[in-house]
Design goal:
Helix 1 (50-59) packs parallel to helix 2 (73-82). The chain has one domain: Dinitrogenase iron-molybdenum cofactor biosynthesis domain (Nucleotidyltransferase, domain 5), CATH 3.30.420.130. It contains four helices and six strands; from the N terminus they run βββαβαβαβα. The protein is elongated. The protein is α/β, with parallel strands linked by helices and 212 residues long. It has a six-stranded mixed beta sheet, with helices on one face. Strand 4, helix 2 (73-82) and strand 5 (85-87) form a beta-alpha-beta unit.
């Protein structure tokens, strides 16, 4: 299985980066062998649309599961169309999260089952640390599988808009701190700005077609 983890650094000891669209690295890993590839996020510095660009890149890498902190509605739409399962609100280092996922302590869901599309999800967070005896030597980029060992999926093709609804009996998760609420609102504002730009581009295209 190929799992994508959003990371602040390029090794398994790096902390999870909670910002999917603006994370520093996408780490593509096999939880069974803990072999991995660390890829700089190609959409991190995008002026707009980082979430949808990053999710399209991830979908094209043959990923089956994404483990992250927050995920905006545009990225959710891409993963829903690609059949990629997601866990959000994960915390800790990359290897801790991968070990927890392997042990079944992190539950992934279909994107359509996630209650809140504003960037906060229902994935389980990581509590505490995991002691490790000894150390793994990881010089430079660490141990990586060659890309040929993991065939990529066909390129993502946008589908119909995803209809999202709150799960019965569940209320959206509230931000834990004021700082997290600010970050959540900024992410939501960026998503709205991205959608507005897309609408404006399409509107201009239609208006140009109507001109004599």
């Amino acid at each position: 299985m190929r799992v994508c983890v959003t990371s602040q650094g390029n090794t398994l000891d790096s902390q999870i980066d909670p910002r999917f669209g603006r994370c520093n690295y996408f780490i593509l890993a096999d939880p069974d062998t803990m072999e991995y590839q660390a890829h700089p996020n190609p959409a991190r510095d995008a002026i707009g649309g980082a979430g949808i660009q990053g999710s399209q890149w991830v979908a094209n890498q043959g990923v089956q599961v994404v483990l992250t902190g927050r995920l905006g509605p545009n990225a959710q739409q891409v993963f829903a169309a690609s059949g990629i399962k997601v866990a959000m609100d994960v915390e800790g280092t990359v290897d801790e999260v991968l070990e927890a996922f392997k042990a079944g302590r992190i539950v992934v869901q279909d994107v359509s089952a996630i209650a809140n599309v504003s960037g906060m999800g229902s994935g389980r967070g990581m509590g505490g640390g995991r002691g490790r005896g000894g150390s793994r030597g990881m010089g430079g980029g660490g141990r990586c599988l060659s890309r040929g060992n993991w065939p990529a999926k066909p390129a993502y093709t946008p589908g119909p808009a995803l209809e999202t609804r709150a799960a019965p009996g569940r209320t959206p998760a509230a931000p834990r701190t004021q700082q997290e609420e600010i970050a959540q609102l900024r992410e939501t504002a960026r998503n709205i700005e991205d959608q507005l730009r897309q609408i404006q581009v399409r509107l201009r295209e239609l208006e140009e077609k109507q001109r004599p």
